[in-house]
Design goal:
It is built from 15 helices and 13 strands. The protein has 359 residues and is α/β, with parallel strands linked by helices. The structure holds 1,3-dihydroxyacetonephosphate (13P) and iron/sulfur cluster.
Length: 359
């Protein structure tokens, strides 16, 4: 019966009212009724299927606030995949994240709503490439960004995310007793990590198509236009962007920064949904552009999440022998103690003398 807000049934209107409060700046009243119905349907299907939805910070606000059981950065999602008791994991994110969940929870059914939700970094390197790199640099530890396929992880000594890359690189160098490590495949992450440590870095030419497009000139323009605004950037951006920013860190680190400091004006140099999602929790903060859209993340919608749970597809599988090898690398990362202070990329204090060797 249509007697609630927006012509919704009273029950749907009541169940979705807290979500509407968080998304109302980004969803129009015309779009909302169908989204509200989908949110209720998805939340019901989750219970029926004993499923959890792990949603990345780049999901759109109606997914992030409406159906995500756990929301966070790549590291947080991986930890949650290892910890969850649900039978089914729905990855509201991209394919490498679903593979990571499968690697950590091989007995669970891992689903992704669209198999084409890829990643330019994951596509930049293969397991065969890593085998060749290891032949060229014998004895050096291989650290790979989690934004890689399972076959790359299977060739890896330890994984990292942007939240812990410096810590992982320093751990690997100490463990292997070397002063150089291989950190692949993101060239910019590698350069930004190299600026934070005395460990030498061998890097690969992978790029994130979202973050590589930002430039130092963009930041200078934003500073001139909005003198009081705080500028936060993701470490997948080029070094001159990080050097000009006030803070750099993973998507979770950027969220924590805004939630703790609540600056009046913020520029988030990252994927567009980040600002919309945080805004839902801190409406008093004014977010200013620019941002770039990730076409892979944007393949995930409420509609295909509903279909995914209804039809139990698309299942993400990883061959057993690959899981055994890749799990070592991911678990090693998860088992590292959390850093004493939250990871941040301080380009002002950076140790710029360390060179990056690009393969
Ligand atoms: P984090 O959430 O780990 O910062 O990663 C960003 C990203 O681009 C994931 O695809
Ligand atoms: Fe990959 Fe960049 Fe998209 Fe993240 S934002 S999924 S790194 S292309």
């Amino acid at each position: 019966m249509a007697d609630g807000m927006f012509g919704l049934s009273e029950r749907t209107a009541r169940e979705t009212a807290p979500v509407w409060e968080k998304v109302k700046d980004h969803v129009t009243p015309i779009e909302w009724p169908s989204q509200a119905e989908l949110i209720v349907e998805i939340n019901r299907l989750k219970k029926e299927r004993d499923a959890v939805i792990l949603a990345h910070n780049y999901m759109t606000p109606e997914i992030f606030h409406g159906v995500g059981d756990y929301v966070g950065d790549s590291l947080g999602l991986a930890k949650e995949a290892a910890r969850s008791n649900a039978k089914v994991i729905v990855q509201a994110g991209v394919h490498f994240m679903a593979e990571t969940s499968k690697i950590l929870s091989p007995d669970k059914t891992v689903l992704i709503p669209d198999l084409k939700a890829g990643c330019s970094l994951a596509e930049a390197i293969t397991g065969a490439d890593v085998r060749l790199i290891k032949q060229r640099y014998p004895g050096l530890p291989v650290v790979t960004y989690v934004n890689t396929t399972a076959d790359v992880k299977a060739e890896t000594d330890i994984c990292c995310t942007s939240a812990n890359a410096v810590q992982v690189v320093e751990w690997a160098a100490k463990e292997w007793g070397v002063d150089k490590v291989i950190l692949i495949p993101d060239e910019f992450l590698a350069r930004n990590v190299a600026a934070q440590t005395n460990i030498g870095i061998i890097a690969w030419k992978g790029r994130c198509i979202v973050h590589e497009r930002f430039t130092g000139a963009d930041i200078a323009e934003m500073r001139a236009a909005y003198p009081g605004a705080e500028i936060l950037a993701h470490p997948e951006c080029p070094e001159d962007v990080l050097s000009a920013a006030d803070f750099a860190g993973s998507t979770a680190a950027m969220t924590d920064y805004v939630m703790a400091k609540k600056p009046k004006q913020v520029v988030l140099i990252t994927e567009c949904s980040m600002a919309s999602n945080i805004k839902g929790d801190v409406p008093e903060v004014n977010f200013i552009g620019p941002c770039n859209m990730c076409p892979y993340m944007k393949r995930i919608t409420l509609e295909n999440i509903r279909d995914c749970l209804l039809n139990m597809e698309y299942e993400v599988t990883v061959p057993e022998e690959m899981i055994a090898k890749a799990a070592l690398a991911v678990q090693r990362m998860i088992d590292l103690p959390p850093p004493a202070v939250p990871a941040r990329y301080d380009m002002v204090k950076a140790k710029h003398h360390v060179a990056v060797e690009l393969i």
